[in-house]
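Why does residue order matter? Because the sequence determines the fold. Keep that principle in mind as you read this record.
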Amino acid sequence: DSSDEEESSSTESEESEGEDPSEMDLARIYERRIQWSVHKLAHRRRVVEEVVHDLLHVSRERFLNSFFPVLQPAIGVGSACEGWSPQEENDVVYCVLVPLKPPWGHTFRLEVATTGEMPQKGMCVCVELVCTCTGEQLGSNTLCFLHHCKEELTRNQKPSLLQTLCTGPYLDAQKIALWFQKFVTSAWEEVLQSQHYSMKVLPSTRSCKLKLKKAHRKPLLVEIIFGVQQGDSDIFLSSQPTEALVPPSTTWLETYAVAEAMFFQHVSRQAPRHSCYLKCLQLCARILVGTGFSPYALKTVVMHLLTLIPLAGWCRRDLLLRLDDVIQYLRCCVEEKRLNHFFFGNEDMPEEISLPAAFQTAQPINLFQNLVEDPDAQAKALREANNL
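Structure:
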């Protein structure tokens, strides 16, 4: 970690040339107050990526000829994997989404499980058997679930996905989480990082939470969630519940986390070197702790600003200006009682992000709808925004 600090220090001196001294000092004061540096978050994220990559490699070998869901490469999602975090050091959780594909002889069909206005639509993943009589087989003895008798299938073949991780015809998020937790416990010794980290599976009903501990280091908290892709888009159905809603085990909630991760990857490719947008997020997230503004509202504000302000305007010397923009934008949204969800009806969406057609034509959804319905909540939010 000392090498990280040296690199950060050299970067600071390298970037400070040509800056106004008073602004430079104030910016550095702000940066020192950010408890978790963007650099350290990125370093620990890479460790998490290695661990999950190795676990999934073992899973592919272990379940090669089974009919469990096919685990796809993990996608880092959420604030810590994007490079910022509102949480204290010991509470930072690195979240990754593992997409699920149907195994041989099965297909997934999505059914709407909840009605009402998006976002956070709930859907069920209906698992259906398909004929494999004439298709390419897993092995020489693979039988078609539809056209072989039950006795022959029971005697010669492993059970179908419908018999293991489903409730009725629907994929069960709780059964998948428990199955994967048991796998991780049994497979940990086969993972290269097990030589350096001890691992404990923490209680969780719809995901796999891991606590990784290295001697004399703070623990790494990892949450592995499972997702089913909607068509070819970057919108998934997630096993992870929300703070406000814990749905039935066969209901999966729509998540925009992968699309958000894709957006930040797009920005990182386009932005100038040493851009300050992650530092803005990090600092504002820490400032907003204890207020009524959620980290998601903050992230939405910054995503909108990243499409409104040219990326050339997010250099390190622009930190104070961009911090002011974030707070002013947030305050204006409170005054207008409206913060548009980033992925619905947004004409400024980068082409690299793939959304369902319904998203592109939808009316913008108001994340501050509660302020419309509750004048007291708006008055409180205005006071907090003014205090910022």
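The chain has a mean pLDDT of 86.
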